[in-house]
Design a protein that fits this description.
With 546 residues, the protein is an alpha/beta fold. The protein is 49% helix and 9% strand. The strands form 2 sheets. It has an 8-stranded parallel β-sheet with strand order 3-2-1-10-9-8-7-6. The longest helix has 32 residues.
Length: 546
C-alpha cells in the first residue's frame, strides 16, 4: 500500500515499540515489523530504548539487558530506509532510567528514584555520548528525548547540593542544556509534553482548553517539539481540547496514541481501536502532522506486539478515511488469510469470555494470584473457570495456521490454566472450612488435590508455548524475569499442594494463611465480584517484601 501520509496530510504516521521493559525485539522480528507496517502504509517506526542501546565507553549502560549494538541499529536503519520508513530513536535524558541507577558508575549522578541529576556535568557528558552514538547509527535527524513524568526532580541529591530551588527553572535549565547538545549534532528534539504542559497549565495534564502561561511557552527551546500522549479515552472532546491547548503552548505538537500491549499477556485490540478512532479524527481536524501509536511493555513486556494486528490494520484504514468495518474486515481476511473476528479472539483472556472494548488484565492477576493468600480473590464473581474453558475452546476453533499460530497457542494454553486456577484459591478456602468445621470435606479435598496437580501440568504446557512465543520475537534477555515469575508460580502451587496433602494425611491441622480473613486489595468491603486493572506481578503474588 502507498504511504498513509500521501493520502491524509500527515508528515509521519507510525508505531513506537517499547524495547526497555525486558522484551527487546530481535533484529529479525523488527525487520518483520517494518515489512508489516510499511505494507500497511506506515512510514515511521520509533524504538523506545531507555538503556537498551550500546554507548561506547559506557559498559554498564544496558549491561545484560539485551541492548542493541551499534551494528544492529545501523542494519535496522538501512532496512527501514529501504522500505521507505524513518527509524527514530526514543531515549530518556531525565527520568525513567531506573535500570542504570543500580550500577555504581551512575549512582552519584542520580537526583532521586530514576531521575538524573540536573546540572551535573557528568550527566551532560553521558547525554552527549547518547547523541553521538545515535548520530552515527541513525539517518534521521529527529530524536525523542523523553523527559516525561519527572515529578520528583530537584527533591533528592539536587536538593542536598543546591537547596530548595524553583523546580520549573531546574527543568527549563536542563532542557536547554540537552537542546544545546542536540543542536551540536544537528538534531531536532521531540519530548513528551506532560512536564511543560503541567507547568504551563497549572499542574494538571489532561485539562481541556487549558490556559497557557506565556512565560513557560517562551522557555521551550526552538529545536524542541512537544508530544501530547493520550491512550486512555474514547471521548473526542478531550483530544480536541488538549490539542487546542497544545497549539497555544507550541505549534507543531505531535500526537502519541496507544495500541494496548502493556497490561498483561493478552492484547487489547478492541479498546485500542475505540480510542484510536476518536484520536485520529481529532488529529485530522486539528491539522496534526506527526502521529504515532505507542506499544508499551509495562511490568514485564508479556504481550506480543503482533497480537495487535487487527488494531494496527484498523488504524491504518481509519487514517485513510475508511471507517467501513465490513470493508476493513474483508481486506484483513484477504491479506492475512485469517478472519478479523478470529484474530480478535486473542483479546478474550483479558476478561474471560468477553472481547469488549475496555481494559482489564484478569488473565495476568488471576494467573499469579496466590492459592492461599488470594489477594485478588475478591474480584471473582464466580464462574470464571467455566468462562476461561469456553475461551480456550473458541481459540481452538479459530483453527489458525502458519505465522500467527503461536499467538493463539499461547492464549489458549493460558486460558486452559485459568479454567482450573482462576477460582482455585476461593475453592481452597471453601474446602478448608468444610474440613475444619465438620470433617466432611475429605472427599472434596481429594478432588481439590487433583485440581492442583492438573494446574501444575497445565502451567508447564503454558510455559513451553509462551517461551516459544517470546523467543520468536525477543532477545533472551528479559525472559529471566518470566522464568522467575512462572517458575516461582509453579513452585508455589506445588508448595500449596504439599501442605494440603499434609492436611489430608493429618500431619498438620492448620494452614495459617487460610485462617486469616480476606480483605479487598482496593480497600472495599467484602467480595465485590468486580474485575479490575491491576498490572503488578509483585503486588499480586504476595503481600510480603520481594
Amino acid at each position: 500500500m502507498d504511504s498513509i501520509c500521501k493520502e491524509n496530510g500527515f508528515r509521519r504516521f507510525g508505531t513506537m515499540l517499547d524495547c526497555s521493559r525486558n522484551a527487546v525485539m530481535t533484529v529479525k522480528a523488527l525487520r518483520r515489523w517494518i515489512d508489516l507496517t510499511a505494507d500497511l502504509g506506515y512510514n515511521t517506526l520509533l524504538l523506545y530504548m531507555e538503556d537498551t542501546y550500546e554507548i561506547q565507553g559506557e559498559p554498564y549502560f544496558g549491561y545484560m539487558r539485551g541492548r542493541y549494538t551499534r551494528e544492529e541499529l545501523k542494519e535496522l536503519d538501512r532496512y527501514a530506509r529501504s522500505k521507505g520508513m524513518e527509524l527514530i530513536p526514543c531515549i530518556q535524558t531525565l527520568a525513567h532510567l531506573n535500570a542504570i541507577v543500580r550500577w555504581p558508575a551512575y549512582q552519584e549522578h542520580v537526583d532521586t528514584e530514576d531521575i538524573l541529576l540536573a546540572g551535573d556535568e557528568a550527566v551532560y557528558g553521558l547525554i552527549d555520548k547518547m547523541f553521538q552514538t545515535l548520530s552515527q547509527c541513525f539517518t534521521t535527524k529527529v530524536i525523542n528525548i523523553g523527559m516525561d513524568e519527572a515529578h520528583m526532580i530537584g527533591r533528592g541529591k539536587y536538593y542536598d547540593l543546591h537547596g530548595d530551588r524553583n523546580r520549573t527553572q531546574i527543568l527549563v535549565e536542563h532542557v536547554n542544556r540537552v537542546a544545546e547538545i542536540g543542536r551540536k549534532y544537528g538534531f531536532t528534539l521531540a519530548m513528551w509534553s506532560d512536564m511543560f504542559f503541567r507547568l504551563a497549565a497549572g499542574g494538571e495534564y489532561y485539562v481541556q482548553n487549558a490556559g497557557i502561561d506565556e512565560k513557560i511557552k517562551k522557555q521551550i527551546p526552538d529545536n524542541v517539539e512537544l508530544i501530547y500522549w493520550d491512550y486512555y479515552t474514547a471521548k473526542k472532546e478531550r483530544y480536541d481540547g488538549m490539542l487546542s491547548a497544545h497549539k497555544k503552548l507550541k505549534e507543531g505538537t505531535w500526537f502519541a496514541g496507544g495500541l494496548w500491549t502493556w497490561t498483561g499477556f493478552a492484547p487489547h485490540n478492541g479498546y485500542s481501536m475505540k480510542c484510536t478512532e476518536t484520536a485520529l479524527a481529532s488529529c485530522s481536524e486539528q491539522g496534526v502532522k506527526d502521529v504515532f501509536l505507542t506499544m508499551w511493555g509495562d511490568n514485564g513486556g508479556e504481550c506480543s506486539r503482533f497480537a495487535l494486528l487487527p488494531a494496527l490494520f484498523y488504524s491504518a484504514e481509519l487514517a485513510r478515511g475508511n471507517s467501513d468495518m465490513a470493508d476493513i474486515k474483508e481486506k484483513f481476511g484477504k491479506k492475512y488469510g485469517i478472519s478479523f473476528d478470529d484474530f480478535m479472539l486473542l483479546d478474550l483472556p483479558d476478561t474471560p469470555g468477553s472481547a469488549d472494548d475496555h481494559i482489564c488484565d484478569a488473565e495476568k492477576y488471576l494467573l499469579y494470584n496466590d492459592c492461599f493468600t488470594g489477594l485478588l480473590d475478591t474480584t471473582l464473581a464466580g464462574g470464571e473457570g467455566g468462562k476461561y474453558a469456553a475461551c480456550a475452546r473458541r481459540l481452538e476453533e479459530a483453527g489458525t495456521e502458519g505465522e500467527w499460530q503461536h499467538l493463539f497457542d499461547t492464549q489458549k494454553a493460558l486460558c486452559e490454566v485459568l479454567a482450573v486456577k482462576a477460582e482455585l484459591g476461593a475453592r481452597t478456602r471453601e474446602v478448608y472450612v468444610a474440613v475444619k468445621e465438620n470433617g466432611e470435606g475429605r472427599a472434596r479435598l481429594e478432588s481439590l488435590l487433583s485440581d492442583y496437580r492438573e494446574v501444575l501440568a497445565r502451567l508447564e504446557r503454558f510455559y513451553r508455548v509462551y517461551r516459544m512465543q517470546w523467543f520468536a520475537e525477543n532477545k533472551p534477555h528479559g525472559f529471566d524475569v518470566q522464568d522467575i515469575r512462572l517458575g516461582g508460580l509453579i513452585r508455589r502451587v506445588k508448595s500449596c499442594l504439599d501442605r494440603l496433602e499434609e492436611l489430608y494425611r493429618g500431619s498438620i491441622s492448620v494452614i495459617e494463611e487460610l485462617e486469616e480473613e480476606q480483605l479487598d486489595i482496593r480497600g472495599l468491603d467484602g467480595q465485590t465480584g468486580e474485575p479490575m486493572c491491576f498490572n503488578s506481578w509483585g503486588m499480586t503474588s504476595t503481600a510480603n517484601v520481594l
